[in-house]
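Re: the request from the purification team.
They wanted to know what the chain is likely to look like in 3D before they choose a buffer screen. I agreed to run a prediction and write the result into the notebook, where they can find it.
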Amino acid sequence: MNTNDFTMYLAIIAVAVLLINNIYQRISMLRAKAQGAFYHKLDQDDAKTSMDKDKSIVVLDVRTPNEYKNGHIKRAKNLSSVKEIASKYPNKDTVFYVYCQSGSRSLKAAKKLVMKGYKEVYDIGGLSYWNYGTTKK
């Protein structure tokens, strides 16, 4: 086998792994939806109103600890891994509002929480768009 053949086989294997991973994620999302778990995108104005009314909502900051220390939404918990979140909040009916800096990490985290069976997960986007102040406490 020459180098070109090896490179081609390696590329085929890489594509197959990506396809299998994509299929697995889609199946996990469908299974979660069948169990009543949904991912929602929530406008930050609506999120703020709900957070002010309902203190049981868990606000998750999925940024790094250093980003969190530089300013975060009041009441936010800095938990970045789904494993960490699941151990702290085992109740699948917990309501989560998830955010990061720009919105991409919160989207990924929200989808992973749904795949773990959490039923009320709301992605509120990025802190860079938050108009309601932050705290360093």
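For the purification team: The radius of gyration is 18 Å.
Please add any questions underneath this entry.
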